[in-house]
Amino acid sequence: MTQTDALVRAVEFIEANLRQKISVGDMADAAGYSLYHFCRSFSQILHLSPYEYLMRRRLSEALNPVLNSDRKIIDIAMNYQFQTAEGFSRAFKRLFGANPSEIRKSDEYPKHRHLPALNRGLIEHI
């Protein structure tokens, strides 16, 4: 198994479990690596820590219901494993430059901050 294969398995695990409670240890297990080796490899290749990738992906996926539904922000936050609306709003603002309700009203956000799901082709390219 190559390093790329391990990272692909980890990313697929993350993507399949964005709405579940998962840990970096769970990601390392999915990759078949020790926690230390997984974190080092993931960060070295993808330039994000596994936790940063997980949080950016959750926030990027949460953007769709923020923009395209009238669901309560707290419901969206809980759906993506944030414990409070405040924590979700702070993380959302760090990534997108505005809190969810502001983005919902304006429909504008920095599109370059949105992180699409990685796949084998992108990981190999990186």
Describe the fold and architecture:
With 126 residues, the chain is an all-alpha fold. It is built from eight helices and no strands. The chain is 67% helix and 0% strand. The longest helix has 19 residues, at 50-68. It starts with a helix and ends with a helix.
Q: Shape from CA axes?
A: elongated
Mean pLDDT: 94
**What pattern of helices and strands is seen along the backbone?**
HHHHHHHH
Radius of gyration: 15 Å
How many strand segments?
0
Estimated share of beta-strand residues: under 5%
Helix fraction by DSSP (H/I, runs of at least 4):
55-70%
Low-pLDDT regions: none
- For the record, give the distance between the C-alpha atoms at the N and C termini, rounded to a whole number: 18 Å
The main sheet comes to: none
Task: Please count the helical segments.
Answer: 8
Structural class: mainly alpha
Brief overview:
The chain has eight helices and no strands.
Task: Outline the fold blueprint.
Blueprint: H1 3-16, H2 24-31, H3 35-46, H4 50-68, H5 73-79, H6 85-96, H7 100-106, H8 120-125
Helix pairs in contact: 1-2, 2-3, 4-7, 5-6
Name its key features.
mainly alpha
